[in-house]
What does this fold into?
Amino acid sequence: MAENFDVVVIGSGPGGYVAAIRAAQLGLKTACIEKGPLGGTCLNVGCIPSKALLHSSELFYKLTHHLPDHGVHVENPTYDFPAMMERKNKVVSDFNQGVGALFAKNKITQIQGIGHLKSPTEIEVRGEGNQVIETKNIILATGSEPIDLPFLPIDEKRIITSTGALALETVPKKLLVIGAGVIGVELGSVYNRLGSEVTFIEFLPKICPTMDEAISKSFQKILEGQNLTFHLSTKVTAADIGSDKITLTTQHEGTQSTLEGDVVLCSIGRRPYTRDLGLENVSIAPNEKGFIPINGHFQTTVPNIYAIGDIVDGPMLAHKASEEGVAVAEIIAGESPTIEYMAIPNVVYTDPEVAAVGLTEKEAKDASLQVKVGIFPFKTNSRAKCTGEEEGMVKIVSDAATDRLLGIHILGAHASEIIAEAVLAIQKKVTTEELANTPHAHPTLSEAVKEAALAALGRAIHR
Ligand SMILES: Cc1cc2nc3c(=O)[nH]c(=O)nc-3n(C[C@H](O)[C@H](O)[C@H](O)COP(=O)(O)OP(=O)(O)OC[C@H]3O[C@@H](n4cnc5c(N)ncnc54)[C@H](O)[C@@H]3O)c2cc1C
It folds into this structure.
């Protein structure tokens, strides 16, 4: 007889595995089906390996570019690329085991194979020894995959997606990156720091298109100062794949040019992954962009089948998927959780980092809000001066009528950590005055957040 569960989650990424743990915590008999290694895109080919390589390469770059400013000299520093990759692999495999241990601790049944829907209560698991399992509820959390270009066949060696970029065997001499979004800019930075000549071709007129305009411009300037080259408002229209080099044809304002590289990273975005899921068997139809439509309770058109994470609309971010994972498990258990989507932060883990939460200045104005803006540059922040991390700024966007904080944007060292107080402020609907009156330890980079709030009120102290 088929085994019967309260909840079966398909996909063990940060959406799926977190949903499974929360469901088990709530006393539901839970299983998670995964076709690959545990942890999904985030753990295996996304957030974690990219941040490991970003940190290793940043250490090398700082050694060669920043330590002399501090009077620290190291003779002829070198790096060992295979060792860097090996360390990254170890970080990933430790976490793979960690997710498995969490499943065991929470008594979650882990099933290896491809989950294929047979009916609203039956899932066929395809793999070694096919089986059918029965369940009262299903959570779809099958994530996303990179989008490719028809004329650029991915081989993950010379024409790569982010997955290939995280597993190269050697550092390319010339790396062409199609798409200057978050993933492209992060991985381009890794190879730039290790000595590649990195050139970006971006279709839109700005890098990291969802970023606040002032922050994006300033960020681009800083990256150009690190020798990254950007061709904006430029489209790649064709590729000539030679035996030792790849030539891309580009179009910019009606002018055709070519660019050559030995490796091309295609990072033009990601699309929801629902292949082999058997959606047709339960009459769930993805929308025109491939996302699975859901209601406010994460229910698909079949009430006991839920969907979360990258396969549903919204920012493709690990922490967004995890918040949804917790919420959907609680909904299935009869609770009424809410997610404040305005408070989902975005981070780019370059050097300096960029982190933002809430609305950009333009988004606030487009929503017909009267905005006031406060900017505080890190060059006048005492801690930044001490550490030599003076690039960037904090920008605060507030509602001029209510004083409520609408958006907080940080370009600077450790922005990924500093953003936490901004997230809490947006989540708790804090006013600019309340943030400005909050004590901040001195000397810290986070004082720049307080000063930006003061600047929005017209009373910054250190400017
Ligand atoms: C290079 C890179 C860097 C990134 N960096 C960050 C970052 O720093 N911060 C951040 O927040 N986000 C980052 N992301 C995005 C983040 O990885 C995703 O938003 C997140 O992983 C989505 O989680 P998910 O649970 O929806 O899906 P996924 O993590 O994609 O997991 C889906 C899982 O489902 C499995 N699966 C699919 N179909 C089936 C099936 N039919 N049966 C069984 N299993 C199936 C897949 O094998 C996969 O393991 C990054 C992404 C990339 C590519």
